[in-house]
Design goal:
Layout lengths: L19 H20 L4 H8 L3 H29 L1 H17 L7 H16 L2 H11 L3 H32 L4 H4 L1 H15 L15 H24 L4 H23 L13 H31 L4 H6 L2 H9 L1 H34 L4 H29 L5 H30 L11 H31 L11 H10 L1
Helix pairs in contact: 1-6, 1-7, 1-9, 2-3, 3-4, 3-5, 3-10, 3-17, 4-5, 4-6, 4-9, 6-7, 6-17, 7-14, 7-16, 10-11, 10-17, 12-16, 12-17, 12-18, 14-16, 15-16, 15-18, 16-17, 17-18
Pfam family, one: MFS_1
Subcellular location: Cell membrane
Organism: Microbacterium endophyticum
Length: about 500
């Protein structure tokens, strides 16, 4: 619903510089929710010693956040499209900052798991909205493209830089500071959104009733699907718990599809997937997230265990990814403007596949070889993820932009879960089921390098198929307006 009975004034900015306050606030909000995905992973051994947690409970310190975050993205996007994107984002930021302070009261791993799950809920209220609000700041296509690019780079940097920040903080401070720092960041972001982002108008929101049943089924389906991969790594694919989770997710998906096809006001209009851009962008984003997560997961073990590097050194080893994310802007924008979204995204997929195959060769070489493969992979990630995110949001009806970014984020979260589970399962099958304490033996290191080669080749095949197929369904237009006609058709049909 509208936040006011009279239309709120729109605030269009003539440049990125003029929009520094709202754009900075949105980037900050996106960064803090993404960095929290990986920030705690490097602190798990320290947390285990401090709180006395076992291996399973420590896995859930990371898993609880991903589970609630991934399960609630679609629901949060649907709520924001009805009750106001700026309003929901401010509530999410306030909750995220306040909950982060609660880490001072944590005295057991169970309490920390509950806190991480609650933070995932707050982050889900932020993620689908930050990108969609960028479109409201500008009416120029090139500015929208650059602003969306900036948002995606910041988000990807947050995901990658988490272990680096975590390792640096743990060198000097308690692990509690990894969460406490969220509070002032969230406060600054709330102020920036409040002062710089225009209020929602009635015309920009949908008046449809909230599909509560559809929301519940989406949470059940995505939650069980995410847990399936966690359980597979922890208990095995043939365990009753994993099989039950798979069957539950399948049943939930079937019920969700039936509900959305029969509901008068569905949460997710499934007819949108008949639009090639929506369908293709979603598939491609799953592929890119599988690649990014799989590479990071394998290299963390490579640097810290096989090579014996410290957590901070392993974090700094990811710098080529971070630097390339920013440096590759002319490449991705140049490809999009010259060849259009379809060819540009497909070229990005080629970079991804070549980079993954190069990584398979470089694992037994020097760090320089690995860094070079990182650069090639990141150029591909940067190009595909940016173009598909812009195309997906641009293809959605104007009153469903939050749902568009929710679909984008959900696809990435599914890819993250698949990538982590796939690499974890392959390591267990090809190398060892238990990572030994202390230095690895030469035999284990050799086995790990051989396993990595198989992993990166497998990732190249899977990602090439998913992202390549998705890229070829995009349009060949060079601007954000190529989807105006399909969007209008969807709007009229609804």
């Amino acid at each position: 619903m509208s936040t006011s009975t009279t239309p709120a004034p729109t605030r269009i900015y003539p440049s990125l510089k003029a929009a520094w306050l709202p754009l900075g606030a949105l980037c900050l909000a996106f960064f803090v929710e993404m960095v929290d995905n990986t920030l705690m992973s490097i602190a798990l051994p320290t947390i285990g010693r401090d709180l006395g947690g076992d291996t399973t409970s420590l896995q859930w310190v990371s898993g609880a956040y991903a589970l609630t975050f991934g399960g609630l993205l679609l629901t949060a996007g649907s709520v924001a499209d009805r009750f106001g994107r700026r309003r929901v984002l401010q509530i999410g930021l306030a909750l995220f900052g306040t909950l982060s302070l609660a880490v001072l009261l944590v005295s057991s791993t169970g309490e920390l798991i509950a806190l991480r799950a609650a933070l995932g809920i707050a982050a889900a209220a932020m993620a689908p909205i930050t990108n969609s609000l960028v479109f409201r700041l500008f009416d120029d296509d090139k500015l929208r493209m650059r602003a969306m690019t900036m948002m995606i780079v910041v988000g990807m940097s947050g995901f990658v830089i988490g272990p680096l920040l975590g390792g640096t903080v743990l060198t000097h401070l308690s692990w509690h500071w990894l969460l406490l720092v969220n509070a002032p960041i969230a406060l600054v972001a709330v102020v920036g959104v409040r002062l710089g982002v225009p209020r929602d108008t009635a015309e920009g929101l949908t008046r449809d009733r909230l599909d509560v049943a559809g929301a519940a089924l989406s949470i059940l389906t995505i939650g069980l699907a995410c847990y399936t991969f966690t359980s597979a790594v922890e208990n095995g694919w043939s365990s009753p718990l994993t099989i039950g989770s798979i069957l539950g997710a399948a049943l939930g998906l079937a019920l969700f599809i039936w509900r959305e096809r029969t509901a008068a006001t569905p949460m997710l209009d499934l007819s949108l997937f008949s639009h090639g851009t929506v369908r293709g962008s979603t598939i491609a984003q799953v592929g890119t997230s599988i690649a990014m997560t799989g590479v990071m997961f394998a290299l963390i073990l490579h640097f810290q265990y096989a090579w014996g590097w410290s957590p901070m050194d392993a974090g700094f080893a990811n710098l080529p990814i971070i630097v390339t994310m920013f440096a590759a802007t002319p490449i991705s924008e140049g490809l999009a403007s010259r060849f259009g979204h379809r060819i540009a995204a497909f070229v990005g997929t080629i970079f991804l596949v070549v980079g993954l195959l190069a990584m398979a060769w470089s694992v037994e070489q020097s760090y320089v070889a690995i860094a070079a493969a990182m650069v090639v992979i990141t150029i591909g990630l940067r190009t595909v993820m940016t173009i598909c995110a812009v195309a997906l949001v641009g293809a959605m009806p104007k009153n469903r932009t939050s749902m568009g970014t929710a679909l984008n984020d959900t696809a990435q979260e599914v890819g993250t879960s698949v990538g982590t589970a796939a690499v974890g399962t392959l390591i267990a099958a090809l190398v060892t089921t238990v990572l030994p304490d202390g230095a690895w033996s030469p035999e284990l290191i050799t086995a790990y390098f051989a396993g990595e080669r198989v992993i990166f080749i497998a990732l190249a095949v899977v990602v090439g198929l998913l992202s390549g197929w998705g890229a070829l369904t995009l349009t060949s237009s060079r601007s954000l307006d190529e989807h105006a006609t399909p969007t209008e058709e969807v709007t009229e049909a609804s």
